Structures are given as C-alpha cells and as structure tokens.
Amino acid sequence: MISSMFRAQRHLSSLSRMAIILLMIVSGILIILDLTETPLPTLPKITLHYANQSIFNQSKVALLIENRPQPIIAPLILKFMYQMPPDWKFRFMGSNESVAHVNSSAAMREHVKSGKLDLTYIPSNMSTAGQEMISRFLTNLWFYDTVLQPAEMLLVFQTDSILCANNKHTVDEFLGYDYVGAPWDTRGRYGGNGGLSIRRVSSIISILQNQQRANDSDPEDVWLSTRLGHHIDGRVANGSVSQLFSGEMNGGPGEVVPVPRCEGDYDEEECEHVNMMKQMEQPGRPGQWVKGIDDWRDGSYEPMGYHIGGTGWMHGSIWGTKVRREHIYSYCPEAKMVLEMDWAPFVPGDCAKDW
C-alpha cells in the first residue's frame, strides 16, 4: 500500500512539472506574439458634459413693459428677437391680463420653454399706467439691482418702436455706451428718448444709490441720461451716434453710395458693372453700399430703428414728405407694424371706404 502511495505521489509530481513546463511555453509564445504584433492605435478619450448651460447671455436683456393686452405685443417681441443678436434674453413685464395675452401665443410659449423669454408680473404695489408711473418704475433702484440682475446691458423698447432688418448696424455695436436713445438734439453731448434705448444697468445703479428722482419731475429718460452724462465715469452717446441708433424727432445724415473708380480702364457704365460684379463675389459687404445695387438708399436717412413717441406725433424731419415716407416703407417695411394705417389707400384701383 505504501508503494502504491509513493507511485501516486511521483505521478502527481511528474504532472506538476509538465504543467509548469507547459505554462512556461505558453507564456513564452504570448510574450513573443506581444513583441512582434503591431500595437493597436490608442482610442481617444471622450468626455460628455450634460450641464444645463444656457445659450443665452444673462447680461444682455431686452425689456418690454406693457400693462395693456395689445395684439401687437407677441408679433413685436418676435420681430425684435429675430432682428437682434441671438444671445440676447427677453423679458416681458405686464399685468395679469397682458401676461395672459402674451402666453396665449404658441410662439411665445416656445420661447419661454427655451429660456429665451421670461414673463413677469408688474408688482401689485407698483404701476406703469401713464408716463409718470413709468418714470417712477424705471428710476427705482430695486428694479435694477434686484429684478434685472444679473443683466448689465438693457434694451428698453415699447409698442411704438421698431428695429429695421435692412439696416447695416446691430444693437451690439452700441454696447460701449451707458445710454443711447433717439436724440433730442443732434448736436447734444448726451440724451435721447427712452422708448427705444440702450442702458448700462451698473451705471444706473450707481446713480440711483446716490440720487432719487422727485415725483412729477423730469421724465425718466431725461432724468437718467442727464445724470449719466454728468457722471464721472459716464459714457453716453452723443447726438451724431444716437442718430445712427434711432430716429424720432430729428433726421440724420443720408446714406452714401460711393461712385466706383476704374482709372480710365472702362467707361462709367462699364466701371459700375465691373465693380458691382466684383462686390457681389464678396462674402459680405458691411459698411459700404454698392452702386448698381444700393442706389435706392443714396441720400436717405436710415437709422437702425424708429420710435414714434407716446403722443403718436410723426415728426416732419422723419415722416414729413411723401418721399421720406415711401423710402421708410421700402427700407423698413416693418415700421408699418407700429403705425396706425388703413389698408385702403394702398390697394390698387378705385376702392371705396368699405368693400
């Protein structure tokens, strides 16, 4: 029995040696293959971040305040949205009725969902009914340092203002100023109508922390722009800059369509055609009009937008001639959105008042 156990032990030892030898052979083969095989390319590391980061700039807000449920509100907000750079946020502040009216628009609800538009109620202890109440609202420190935060640049617009899609300027070109509005004096150093205006929130907060507007005094745009103009760090657009931004009371410089120069290689007509074709090949032609394409603009005043004003008065230097009005209707047809117009005069043929 002892000899049987001894033989079994020797057999197991022999199997163990064979297993070790076999393992060494396999390991050697694997090492050789690993050294001779072409290495696989390293896979790139990809990291996905699903942060709730808004595509809109919280520091740039366009604001419309209206307590009346006017039909123009939703179309006008949409017009401003698609005219302005896409990173601007929008805020509508109104009464229960006007907010409900805006929210009844499917387009408005989609922009609320996307975060582009905020709908806010005017506080019950405040009012925007009338010019004086609006002036009190827009000179209230709480409004700027609490409601609008973290906004730094504010575009205020009203239902009697419009931006023109055919203009060569953008709102962002005027963000270097603390205040820009349609000028009351084209030669003035500061000041402009607030119904379509750009304002720097931090500069206004600085004013309102030290001064308070007296009730029934200057309108808010006069009061704010004057103090910003005298502020030690203030930078308010002068009359000539403000003319480019918005037109209300005063006209401005006409557009210039330059005459091309061909240095005698072509006659005048050929020169114009060659220049026009060359300009059309360019990906864009910002800041300069092209003869043969933009002749209809030559000599006409084209601000970035228009503001009619609370009284509805259409000032002669902007609207006072048929030629001026016809150019505005061609250059800025969306201006008709904010004008009280009857369709009948524009229908061809001899139409009665009613048909």
Describe the structure.
This protein is of the alpha/beta class and 355 residues long. It has a domain at 57-247: Spore Coat Polysaccharide Biosynthesis Protein SpsA, Chain A (Alpha-Beta Complex). Helix content is 37%, strand content 13%. It is built from twelve helices and nine strands. The strands form two sheets. It has a six-stranded mixed sheet, with helices on both faces. Strands 5-9-8 form a three-stranded mixed sheet. Helix 10 links the parallel strand 8 and strand 9 (305-307). The protein is extended. It starts with a helix and ends in a 24-residue tail after the last helix.
The total of beta strands comes to 9
**CATH architecture descriptor of the domain at 57-247:** Alpha-Beta Complex
Q: What is the CATH H-level superfamily of the domain at 57-247?
A: Spore Coat Polysaccharide Biosynthesis Protein SpsA, Chain A
Strand order of the largest sheet: 3-2-1-4-7-6
| Mean pLDDT metric | 85
Low-confidence stretches: none
Shape: extended
Give the tags.
Spore Coat Polysaccharide Biosynthesis Protein SpsA, Chain A, six-stranded mixed β-sheet, three-stranded mixed β-sheet, 12 helices, membrane, DUF5672, transmembrane helix, transmembrane
Topology:
Layout: H1 2-36, E1 57-66, H2 73-83, E2 88-94, H3 96-103, H4 106-114, E3 117-121, H5 131-137, H6 141-147, E4 153-157, E5 161-163, E6 179-182, E7 193-200, H7 201-208, H8 220-230, H9 239-245, E8 246-247, H10 268-280, E9 305-307, H11 316-319, H12 322-331
Parallel strand pairs: 1-2, 1-4, 2-3, 8-9
Antiparallel strand pairs: 4-7, 5-9, 6-7
Protein name: DUF5672 domain-containing protein
Transmembrane segments: 12-33
Keywords: Membrane, Transmembrane, Transmembrane helix
